[in-house]
Structure formats: structure tokens, C-alpha cells
Amino acid sequence: MTDVAPRLVALAERVLEEPLPIRVRAWDGSEAGPPGAPVLRIRHRRALRRILWSPGELGLARAWVAGELDVDGELYDLLSGLAGLLWEKDEGGSPERRVLALARDPDIRAAARELLSLGGLLPPPAPPREEKRRRFGARHTPGRDRQAVRHHYDVGNDFYELVLGPSMVYSCAYWEPGSPGRTPTLEDAQRAKLDLVCRKLALGPDRRLLDVGCGWGSLVLHAAREYGVSAVGITLSHEQATYARKRVAEEGLADRVEIRVQDYRDVSDGPYEAISSIGMAEHVGRERYLQYANGLYSLLKPGGRLLNHQIARRPLQDESAYQVDDFIEAYVFPDGELAPLALTAGVLEEAGFEVRDVESLREHYALTLRAWVANLEGAFARAAALTSPGRARVWRLYMAASALAFERNRIGINQILAVKTPVSGDSGLPLRTREWLGG
């Protein structure tokens, strides 16, 4: 009998109380759902057991990483179809809460029994090995931060070269209009972003730059090569540091660029004229934001500039209710946290900074993520060989879902330019704002 897919679709619509916007193809060859809709392929009944034991996002993610769920066609289309069910419901309408709320309904209990019969009564499958195991102790201590950062970044520089391209910049690019007849490439956009940061910081030969969370060294290299600065880049990843030092040596910039494996809390060799923090503050944690801001403030000379480039989430009525997505916490950025823009700006001001400019790059990050997904999908077998099939699937899902989140305005990304304005009140910025735009 080939009836698994129709039964699953009927069960899903019963629990969700609305039509399922995707088509399902089950391991028995059956299909059900709207004709022409994106197709979710359930390769193994084990996927159902994962969802039964972890309803909602985490169970689905584990099945995806394990290869028990797949998509026929475009992943973006499938995620768009599921977005309204998984991510864009109010809290009372989330799948987990809805299942719990309906648990006493006899029809729902019957549906759960039917799902058990389809998935099997065996114990829950072990999570895929790519999942970060449960961590104990206080969050955002130096030791725990090192473990979290290395889980994400120490997966092989060859893998990151494949995904990020030659620029090796793992943050939002800046997509400027191309010249007539030429569309900007990812490399063009990343170069434009590095240059934008350098101009905002007013870098020059008389300046000393600290890049907090320097990654593979792209910004400090660009700043030293194009603007003549002396630069220090810090990272917690040994793999990133080794790669960055090799690039510095190959470009003959060892006299102007230093790469350290160092926690931002341990930097003590200020003052600097400029500090960049590009995609690093997401790892800091809400309980450490003020410590982070105070530390950067203390490392700047009076009149020095900070460029804080950070993903932002939408504010909540009750900020204490904020929780990181289960998939992100388990597979992507352990202990990572997003803050609303106003919270970040407020903490910088509390530390003493004068916030002078805020620029949203939300649409730019969506374009960047789509370029990274294209790189990954174009060489998926190679990516899986360099890490693991599960890790490559984590990245494909994470980047595609993130692209849609930026496109749908669920999250944003902002560059905040702040100044350690001296007592005299002279910020060092001209009356004409955004002088870095030129013209």
C-alpha cells in the first residue's frame, strides 16, 4: 500500500488547521499535496520519529541534516512555503505550542497515534554528529566562547574558500550598481564592503586599526594594502589565524599586520585610532554587551571611531522571552544571540560612545547569502567531502533560510559608526554627513 504521503498531509492539516502549502513525497513512493507546489521528500520513516520527539524546528532540522528529508527542486521555494507555518506565526500559533494546546483533543490524540504508527515506536534516533552537544556552566565565559566559535569556524579553510569565494569575507557584502553591461560579482561586493568600512573609519597611514573577530584577515589586509594603516586582527579560531597569517606573509605586509588568537576581553595594547567589529558582536551575549562596549571604548583614543557591523532581530514586547532558534543553537552558532538595533545603540551610548551614523544593509545580506548558497550548491559534493554531508546540509539550510529571513524583514543588519568624542565635543566628523560616500 502506498498511502503514507496522503495520511501525513491529512494529519498535518488537521494539526495546523489550514491547508499544507507544500507537496509531500514519502519513502513508499506516495505523493500528496497541492499540484505544482514545492516538494518535501521524506526519505525514511526515521524522520517522523525525530519530529515526534522534537516537534517543530529542531526535529525537522535533525532529519534534514541526517539526509532523511530532502527537497525536489528549489530549496528557497520549499522554505518560502513553510515560512508561514514555522517562523511567521505568533507565539500561540507555533507548531510546538499548537500541539501542546491540542494535546487533550481526542482527534489530535488519534492523529498522534497514527503518526506513531507511521514513524515506528522505536526510541528517538541519536542526533546527527554535526549537532553541538549540550553545554554546561555560565554562557559567554572565555572558555565557552572559544568552544562555540571553533564549532562554527574550525570546519576547514578549504570548505570556507568554496562557499565564500576568493575574498574569504564571511559577512554581508555591499552591492553597488555595476558599470554598464557588467553585473557586480560577489568579489566586487565584498571589496566594496571592505572599502566602505575603511572610509567610515577614516583610515590612513597615521592610523592604527584593531579588527575584533578578524576572520581570515580580509579587512586588515585591505586596510593595510589600500590605506597604509598598521592593523591588529584578533580571532578565537586557530584555523582562521593560521590562514590569515599566511595571507599576510604572502602579501609582504607582516611589518604592518599582526594576527592574534586572542579574546577581545584580553586586548590591552591600546589606544587605537579605529576599531572594526564585523559580524562578531552576535557572539558576545546580552549579559556581556556592556562589557564589550566598555572594553572597545577604553581601547580607542579620544576622537577614535568604532564601526560595529551586526545582525539585528526585531524587538519583543518582553525582551526576557527571547530565545535563539533551536536549529541555530544546535548546529550553527552555539550561544549566539541577536539584539535589536536600539539595544545595541543604547549600550554603545551607555559606554560613552556618540552614535553618529546607522546604515541598514538588510537587502545586501540577502544578496550575499544567495551568492554563498549558489557557490555551495554548485560544488556540493566537494563541500560534503571537505567536511561531511551533514555539515554541508547544515550550511545549505542555514544560508538559504537566512536569505529569506533578510528578504522578509524578519532580521536586519546594521553598520553603526560611533565616536569616542572628546570632552571638547570635536567628533572629528565634518558637518557634511557620510563624507565616505564621496561626490
TrEMBL record:
One of its GO terms (molecular function) is methyltransferase activity. One of its GO terms (biological process) is methylation. Residues 159-422 form the Polyketide synthase-like methyltransferase domain. This is Class I SAM-dependent methyltransferase. Keywords: Lipid metabolism, Methyltransferase, S-adenosyl-L-methionine, Transferase. Belongs to the CFA/CMAS family. The lineage of its organism: Bacteria, Bacillati, Actinomycetota, Actinomycetes, Kitasatosporales. It comes from Streptomyces ovatisporus. Residues 120-143 are annotated as: Disordered. Gene3D superfamilies: Vaccinia Virus protein VP39.
